[in-house]
Structures are given as C-alpha cells and as structure tokens.
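Below is a filled-in request sheet from our internal design queue. Each sheet records the structural input a requester submitted and the sequence that came back. We keep these sheets so that new team members can see what a complete request looks like end to end.

REQUESTER: design group, bay 2
PRIORITY: normal
MODE: inverse folding
CHAIN LENGTH: 264
BACKBONE (tokenized):
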C-alpha cells in the first residue's frame, strides 16, 4: 500500500509540478487539480439529483436581481475577452499553425496567458447556469448536453492552461467562444428583463445555429495543422477535433429535435 501511494505521489509531483508550464505558477485555481476537482464534484452532486430533490417541496426562487447582475456580468466579461483576444490576431504569422508558447516570457505571450486564465475562471463561473436552473425549477433545461458542455470546458481549460498556459493554437477557441457567449448571455439578459421575448423563437434558434457554426470553424482550425508540419502537438489537435465533432453532433441533435422535428 505504501508503495502504491508513493508511486501515485511521484506521478502527481512529476506531472503537476515538474511538467507544468512555468509561466502559470501562482495563478488562482491552477496550482493543484484538487480545487477544480472539488468544485466539479460538488456541481455534479447538486445538479444530478440532489438539487432537484432539495427543491422538490419548495417554491421556485425568483432570483430576478441575481440573474440581471449575473447575465450582465457575463456579457461584459465575454465581450472584454473577445475584444482582447481579437486584438492579438495580427501577432501570429500563420493562423493555421500557432505553436505552444512554452518558456515565452514576452509581453504578448504573458498577456495572452492572463487572458486565457480569465477565460478559464469564467468557465468556472458558467457552472452557476445550472444551479440557477434548478433553483428556479427549470429542470427541463438541465440536460446531458448542458452539464457535459460546462464540465468539459472547465476541465479542458484547466489542463490546457496548466500545461500550455493557454497560448498557441487554442487561441481561436477563446476568441470565438467569448463572442458567442456574449450574444448568448445577451439573450438571457433580455429575456430576464422581458420574458415575452422568449416567444420570439427565431432568435433562440439562431443562437443554436451560431454555436454549431462555432464548432465547425474550430474543427477546421484545429484540423488543418494535423496534416501539416505544425509544431503544435498532433494528439492535442486530434483530441480537440473529436471533442468539437461530438459537440456539433449533440447541438445538431438538439436543434433537430427542438426546431425541425417539433415543427413538422
């Protein structure tokens, strides 16, 4: 038993201290995998039954003021990140091959590291979406797609920033996703202010289409360097392509059931 624990500790020490990108040491929620693991464990425990059981005999919370503040904050944060990310687009020689910025302590690389860190923290903040759904008894919106998307984004951001400091080819994900989420939370903000807007089904439908376009662009952007001499790790590129194909399938299935099949 002692030998097993020793080997586990050696594995942990090597990969989470020796192999991490030196430029992310000291950043909040990045030092150890334990805090984000604990956050996600509590999140999954609450959203996969415990929260709904707790709310079963209670009235739905209104949360109007909290939702106004939360959605407005999300719009501002995502717009800020999207604009900051796009301001660096001219810094790259080839947008279809952006190598990892290992040991790059230049001003631009460090600023992109900080923006990637902010993006990761916002993905953790996104987990509150599901909590608000449950507290408001909107349980029909707590789907596998919704939960999976939030969890995989938090995990993916942690691992990528921990070992790649958020730079390199994944720059495009932060850029595109930030603008998409600014639009999405803008819709949430307006519907929380004017619930009758929810009847305008065309708006919600196009937000889903926009998300599907996002995944398609990312599949192309991460797919092209797989077949070139780009120095970005091929395994990571393939993994991101597979993940975005899966998300495109899930969103496509949702879109078909919600807007095509239901209409017919």
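RETURNED SEQUENCE:
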């Amino acid at each position: 038993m002692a030998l097993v624990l020793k080997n586990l500790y050696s594995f942990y020490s090597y990969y989470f201290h020796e192999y991490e990108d030196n430029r992310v040491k000291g950043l909040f929620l990045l030092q150890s995998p334990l805090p984000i693991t604990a956050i996600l464990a509590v999140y999954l425990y609450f959203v996969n039954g415990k929260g709904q059981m707790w709310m079963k005999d209670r009235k739905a919370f209104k949360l109007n003021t909290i939702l106004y503040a939360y959605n407005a904050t999300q719009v501002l944060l995502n717009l800020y990140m999207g604009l900051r990310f796009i301001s660096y687009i001219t810094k790259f020689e080839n947008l279809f091959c952006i190598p990892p910025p290992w040991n790059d302590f230049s001003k631009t690389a460090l600023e992109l590291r900080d923006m990637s860190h902010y993006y990761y923290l916002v993905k953790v903040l996104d987990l509150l979406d599901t909590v608000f759904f449950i507290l408001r008894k909107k349980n029909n919106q707590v789907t596998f797609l919704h939960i999976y998307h939030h969890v995989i984004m938090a995990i993916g951001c942690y691992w990528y920033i921990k070992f790649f400091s958020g730079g390199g080819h994944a720059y495009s994900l932060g850029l595109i996703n930030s603008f998409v989420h600014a639009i999405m939370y803008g819709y949430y903000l307006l519907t929380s202010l004017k619930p009758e807007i929810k009847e305008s089904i065309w708006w919600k439908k196009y937000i889903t289409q926009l998300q599907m376009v996002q995944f398609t662009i990312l599949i192309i952007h991460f797919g092209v360097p797989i077949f070139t001499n780009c120095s970005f790790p091929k395994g990571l590129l393939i993994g991101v392509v597979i993940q975005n194909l899966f998300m495109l399938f899930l969103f496509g299935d949702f879109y078909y059931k919600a807007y095509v099949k239901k209409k017919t």
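SHEET NOTES:
- The mean pLDDT is 86.
- Residues 52 and 177 are 29 Å apart (CA to CA).
FILED BY: M.R.
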